[in-house]
Amino acid sequence: MSSLPAMTSSLATRLRVLILGGTAEANRLAQVVAKDPRIYAVLSYAGRTENPAKPPIAWRVGGFGGIDGLKHYLMAENIARVVDATHPFAAQMSSHAIAACAAANVPLLALERPPWQAVAGDRWIEVDDIGAAAAALGAAPRRVFLGIGRQHLAAFAPHPQHAYLVRLVDPPRAPLPLRDAEMVVARGPFDRAGERAMLTKFCADMIVAKNAGGNQVSAKIDVARELALPVIMIRRPFVPARQKVETVDEVLHWLGHDAAPAERGV
Ligand code: 3Y8
Ligand code: NAP
Questions:
Q1: pLDDT digits (tens, 9 = 90+) for 233-247
Q2: What's the domain range around 201?
């Protein structure tokens, strides 16, 4: 489904930008470029959630159909720049963007927040992937908060001795693959008070999290530290090297459109 209208003369001279979204950063970037008449941007979602946040710019939902699908989209829509503002764990999308942009000769920039770094008081057990995280829970029954979403819950099914608290963006479309699981349906970002109340009510004694990074979504990590809870922290998956920045302003500079303070809403 595309909400991108056919190109009219007024659009022809504007810089046509594809933003691969699904994160707070992508949403912030969409808010800023919506105020810049020199940019025509479209925000792209995979379609993982039922009601994604509606941006103030054109947007589309659904995969492109692999690398070739994205390459053809870039050419058909005359995209001049791609900003990969997807989540650090959206490794396949990021890898496809690298290959498709190279094939279509379209400049690519990643907008990605730095990973969290453990600080004094953190009790992290770092693992490489979801499977290793499930194994790291150990044999003794635990009360585990799974702050990793819906897609990979099956990895914990072989460990039924634990009681799980699962947080999902949408109500589940099928029974959860876990024997003993409570569920919270909520869309972040989340705050410390809410995280503390949720973890305390559940009597959590361990947390599983992806190293999503960024201070927007670190509440559960900060509260785990305060409650001295161990965190099984899943390291980011490998993504091939590409040009990368950490702020919306750096993206605007790369687009050749440093926003005036008024446009940035600052
Ligand atoms: C569809 C877009 C905003 C942006 C909201 C950020 C922050 C809240 C934290 C927990 C962790 C988790 C999950 C999470 C966070 C933000 C940001 C972020 C983690 C939405 C969104 C889409 C998705 C997809 C969804 C995944 C899931 C992961 C839930 C929109 C809300 C766990 C990642 O049910 C599903 O299929 C969910 C799938 C990929 C991971 C998974 O494997 O299940 N995100 N999340 C995007 C698309 O369709 O392209 O619906 O509006 C975006 C956000 N999720 O300010 O509005 O920027 O990271 N998202 C993780 O970090 O582990 C929640 O609960 O503690
Ligand atoms: P992924 O495994 O990296 O990508 C799998 C496939 O989903 C891609 O090959 C592509 O399909 C499609 N896709 C992914 N992101 C897309 C986008 N923004 N626009 C259009 N198609 C997209 O992706 P994921 O990890 O499931 O993440 C999906 C979405 O959720 C992304 O927008 C991501 O930013 C957001 N998100 C993910 C996480 C997470 O933990 N993974 C956390 C927060 C937000 P085709 O091959 O058909 O093009």
A1: 999 999 999 999 999
A2: 124-234
